[in-house]
C-alpha cells in the first residue's frame, strides 16, 4: 500500500527511541524519531532501537556499539511509547528511514506490518556490502526483519527548498543527502502545526554544524570516523547551513542532538 492512502497529516510528535550516554562534550545523545499521525494510520520517520536490540544488544548491535553507552531501556522503544499513547504496532503502516544504520532501523522490527521506505542506494549498500565497516553499521538481524517489506526509491523527480527529492506522500519528502552513508536522505515533514520540518538524520551530529560560526566549515572527529564520504558530508552540511539561514526555510534537526530534540518534543506536546 502506498503511503498516500494514509490521507492527510494531522499531527506530528517527537520521541527519543535510544539514549546514548557517551557524551561527546555535552548532554546524553538521543535517537530522534518523528511520529506522523495521519487520518488513517501512523508513519514513523526513523525507528531508533527496537525491543530486540535492547534485549539482545551484543548480538543485535555488536560489541563495538556498546562504546556509545546506550541505556538499552525497553521503555524507550517506539512500540512501547506508542502503546502508552494508546496506539498498537499495527497502527504503524509506514516507516521512512534516513538511512539503515543500526540505531535508525532497529525499531522497525517491532512493526511487522509497516512498509519500510529508504533510497535504493541505501538498501543496496546495507544488504550487499560485506566489508568490516558495513558489518558494524548494517546489522543482519535488523535487515532480515524488514527484508520482504522494504521499498527502495531511486528517482528524485520532485523539488523542495530547491533540493531534488522524492515525495513519498504530499507531506513527506526524502531529499538525498549522502556522506554519512551513500544512500542517506534527509526527510522533510509538513507539520500542520509548525510548517516544514527537516529530519536530517546523521547528516550532522550537533546543531553547531548548521548554526553559528563553525557552520559548514569543519566536521567533527566522530563525524569523520563514521562518514562513508567526508567530502559529501561537508558539502551537505554547507547546503544545510545555507538552508537554515533562510528566513522561510524548514526547521532543521539531526537524529542525535538532545537540545534540538527537547525543543521540538516540548513544543509538540
Ligand atoms: Zn545515527
TrEMBL record:
Record bears the keyword Ribonucleoprotein: no
Short name of any one Pfam family annotated for the protein: Lactamase_B
Co-factor requirement: Zn(2+)
Record Gene3D superfamilies: Ribonuclease Z/Hydroxyacylglutathione hydrolase-like
Alphabetical list of InterPro entries matching this protein: MBL_superfamily_lactonases (IPR051013), Metallo-B-lactamas (IPR001279), RibonucZ/Hydroxyglut_hydro (IPR036866)
Top-level division of the source organism's lineage: Bacteria
Keyword Transcription regulation: no
Residue ranges of domain Metallo-beta-lactamase in the record: 28-256
Record-linked SMART domains: Lactamase_B (SM00849)
Keywords, alphabetical: Hydrolase, Metal-binding, Zinc
Family per similarity comment: Belongs to the metallo-beta-lactamase superfamily.
Descriptive protein name: Metallo-hydrolase
Organism, as annotated: Williamsia phyllosphaerae
Amino acid at each position: 500500500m502506498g503511503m498516500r492512502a494514509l490521507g492527510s497529516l494531522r499531527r506530528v510528535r517527537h520521541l527519543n527511541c535510544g539514549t546514548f550516554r557517551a557524551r561527546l562534550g555535552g548532554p546524553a545523545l538521543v535517537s530522534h524519531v518523528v511520529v506522523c499521525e495521519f487520518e488513517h494510520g501512523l508513519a514513523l520517520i526513523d525507528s531508533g532501537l527496537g525491543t530486540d536490540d535492547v534485549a539482545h544488544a551484543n548480538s543485535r548491535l555488536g560489541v563495538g556499539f556498546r562504546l556509545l553507552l546506550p541505556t538499552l531501556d525497553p521503555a524507550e522503544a517506539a512500540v512501547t511509547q506508542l502503546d502508552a499513547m494508546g496506539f498498537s504496532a499495527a497502527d504503524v503502516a509506514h516507516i521512512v528511514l534516513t538511512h539503515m544504520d543500526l540505531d535508525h532501523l532497529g525499531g522497525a522490527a517491532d512493526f511487522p506490518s509497516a512498509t519500510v521506505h529508504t533510497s535504493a542506494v541505501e538498501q543496496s549498500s546495507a544488504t550487499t556490502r560485506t566489508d568490516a565497516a558495513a558489518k558494524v553499521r548494517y546489522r543482519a538481524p535488523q535487515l532480515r526483519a524488514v527484508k520482504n517489506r522494504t521499498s527502495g526509491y531511486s528517482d528524485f523527480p520532485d523539488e523542495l527548498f530547491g533540493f531534488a527529492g522524492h515525495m513519498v506522500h504530499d507531506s513527506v519528502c526524502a531529499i538525498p543527502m549522502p556522506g554519512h552513508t551513500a544512500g542517506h536522505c534527509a526527510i522533510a515533514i509538513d507539520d500542520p502545526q509548525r510548517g516544514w520540518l527537516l529530519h536530517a538524520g546523521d547528516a550532522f551530529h550537533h546543531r553547531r554544524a548548521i548554526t553559528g560560526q563553525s557552520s559548514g566549515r569543519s566536521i567533527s572527529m566522530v563525524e569523520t570516523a563514521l562518514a562513508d564520504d567526508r567530502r559529501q558530508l561537508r558539502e551537505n552540511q554547507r547546503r544545510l547551513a545555507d538552508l537554515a539561514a533562510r528566513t522561510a526555510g524548514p526547521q532543521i534537526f539531526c537524529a542525535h542532538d538532545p537540545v534540538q530534540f527537547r525543543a521540538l518534543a516540548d513544543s509538540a506536546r
